[in-house]
Amino acid sequence: MHQPLIFIDGDQGTTGLQIHARLKGRTDLRLLTLPDAERKDPRRRAEALNSADIAILCLPDDAARDAVATLRNRQVRVIDASSAHRTAPGWVYGLPELDAQQPERIACAMRVSNPGCYPTGAIALLRPLIEAGLLPADYPLAIHAISGYSGGGRGAVERHEHAGEQRLPALQLYGLELAHKHVPEIQAHAGLSARPLFLPGYGDYRQGIVLTTALHLRLLRPGVTAEHLQACLQQHYHGARHVQLMPLHQQGPATALDPEALNGSDDLRLALYANPEHGQVLLSAVFDNLGKGAAGAAVQNLDLLLSALRR
């Protein structure tokens, strides 16, 4: 049986190293790795890309676009882990949990764009509610998320783990101009007609994300309750392998949200917290930014592409 050849372009970056480690021991595929001296050679990279059955791009956005432009072999399937193609025509969005048909769309695609880490949590919470008509597409959303510093890439890891005596902030909020590059992705794939406000930050810990957004029930369709929102997510994610939906938390003691709770996992944990007295609901997502937020998602999409090659 043919073992598909997989090439990771950018396998020395944070996401690339994680993907390589996950695939290294597998016997159902072959990994093509360039020697250190050839990793930045455009000719050798182009040769590797065009010889692969599936190429995984773990590159900055411009480099990812350049890599796609070098493809001459029309049989090469691509998973792009950058944000270069997440709203581009002709690319399938690599979130299998988007709807019931999405896994098959990914499996049959030639071009798959891996979701961003923050959008993974936001879209997973919002899209089912918007599709069901429980959340208006023009709701004025404010989304807040904190990630471990590895979300900033290799440079951020170096700064935090080799800072010496320099003390780095315990928490840094950024994107304060409200123009983060993930906003169009969230808006497009969640099905929002109004641009959401998105404020991200980095904590002084290596990995893990906690993302939240709050809703006022009075701004939803009349009669919609936290129980309706919970039931919608329960139905949407029934049987989903990598999504955990926690029981609805009503007013009273609740477990604190720990961004590191799913580190080392490829799962996404969703939870709703409700205050019936004031008609407010908090939607939350916890996941590993290097797992379901990056490498884990890429491998999940890779397995869908491989399933199609085996048919």
TrEMBL record:
InterPro entries: AGPR (IPR050085), AGPR_AS (IPR023013), AGPR_dimerisation_dom (IPR058924), AGPR_type-2 (IPR010136), NAD(P)-bd_dom_sf (IPR036291), Semialdehyde_DH_NAD-bd (IPR000534). It is found in: Cytoplasm. It comes from the Bacteria. Its EC number is 1.2.1.38. Belongs to the NAGSA dehydrogenase family. Type 2 subfamily. NCBIfam families: argC_other. Catalyzes the NADPH-dependent reduction of N-acetyl-5-glutamyl phosphate to yield N-acetyl-L-glutamate 5-semialdehyde. This is N-acetyl-gamma-glutamyl-phosphate reductase. The lineage of its organism: Bacteria, Pseudomonadati, Pseudomonadota, Gammaproteobacteria, Pseudomonadales. The gene is argC.
